[in-house]
Amino acid sequence: MSQKIEVAPGLIVLRVVADGWELPEFSPGQFAVLGLPPEAPRCDGSRIEDQTPRGGRLIRRAYSIASSSVSREYLEFYINLVQSGSLTPRLFALQPGDRLWMGPKITGTFTLDHASRDHHLVLVATGTGLAPYMSMLRTMLPTTEGRRVSVLLGARHSWDLGYHSELATMERLCPNFLYLPTISRPDEEVVPWSGRTGYVMGLWTSGAVREQWGLRPSPNDTSIFLCGSPAMIDDMCSLLVTQGFREHARNAPGQIFIERYW
Ligand SMILES: Cc1cc2nc3c(=O)[nH]c(=O)nc-3n(C[C@H](O)[C@H](O)[C@H](O)COP(=O)(O)OP(=O)(O)OC[C@H]3O[C@@H](n4cnc5c(N)ncnc54)[C@H](O)[C@@H]3O)c2cc1C
């Protein structure tokens, strides 16, 4: 592991370099598998784990890649701490230079490949569900002429909005890109938050995308990606279905694409 950036309490960006092998090619939106042995130390502030890992076996979990697929100097991951989890407290205890296991295969179907090329994109995330979109945006945003792209991001606090300044800069530089963050606990802000508040679904129902795009996103012209907490995904999906969108399946193409983290 080459770099650990602490974004906020319980949120880190990890950069991983391959030692003695070449990082494989991947499509933005795909995930890698990281692993550590049960003997690896847990970070301060973690709780007793829900399940004691079996000795001698690596603890492995999937993580979406947040870095661009065109520059493979390192792979970047955006990870939140599950205090009673098995792997994340061990990942949080890593220091630059420490070794961890990474699976040689990068896989996943949560990519832009199945979305119609002429569709606008709405990328909806809570928390670290932003990771696959960072890879997509860092790889292709400047070349998406004509295609509108919006990120709708929900977090509890403003300090949990990882990549906030990078996304705000993209919005300033790319006329086709819209970044809409919202926080759900404005009462806990240290400095008053003047941005949007409430859940990410409220951003969609508020009509903010329609207002900014100057057109109403419809299943004929827009593909919607959902990534992060299961509650957000279920609520958004149910709502979108009532608006005529359909979940994409291999044998029945649709406009809703989903990545469930748990
Ligand atoms: C395709 C895929 C991509 C993923 N990408 C990411 C990523 O980019 N960043 C990331 O942080 N996680 C990601 N995850 C989740 C990750 O694989 C682990 O499940 C998570 O880090 C918890 O691991 P753990 O061993 O610490 O917890 P475990 O011991 O496995 O405990 C799991 C329990 O913790 C809860 N949980 C799991 N993930 C989260 C979470 N993110 N936030 C809150 N509670 C959670 C659930 O209740 C779950 O049952 C991804 C999962 C999948 C399937």
- Give the strand content: 25-35%
Q: SS-based structural class?
A: alpha/beta
Secondary-structure element order, N to C: EEEEEHEEHEHEEHHEHE
Q: Mind telling me the C-alpha Rg?
A: 19 Å
Largest sheet: 6 strands, parallel
Silhouette = globular
pLDDT averaged residue by residue: 94
What's the helical proportion of residues? Answer: 10-25%
Cofactors, ions and other ligands in the entry: flavin-adenine dinucleotide
Strand arrangement, largest sheet? 10-9-8-7-11-12
Low-pLDDT stretches are none
Subunit organisation of the chains: single chain
The N- and C-terminal alpha carbons lie at a distance of 25 Å
Overall number of strands: 12
How many alpha or pi helices? 6
Give a brief outline of the structure.
This protein has 262 residues and is α/β, with parallel strands linked by helices.
Report on this structure.
With 262 residues, the chain is of the alpha/beta class. The protein is built from six helices and twelve strands. The chain has a six-stranded parallel sheet with strand order 10-9-8-7-11-12, with helices on both faces. Strands 1-2-5 form a three-stranded antiparallel sheet, with no helix packed on it. A three-stranded antiparallel sheet has the order 4-3-6, with no helix packed on it. Helix 6 (230-242) links the parallel strand 11 (222-228) and strand 12. Bound molecules: flavin-adenine dinucleotide. Flavin-adenine dinucleotide is lined by residues 31, 50, 61-64, 77-80, 82, 85-88, 108, 128, 131, 259, 261-262.
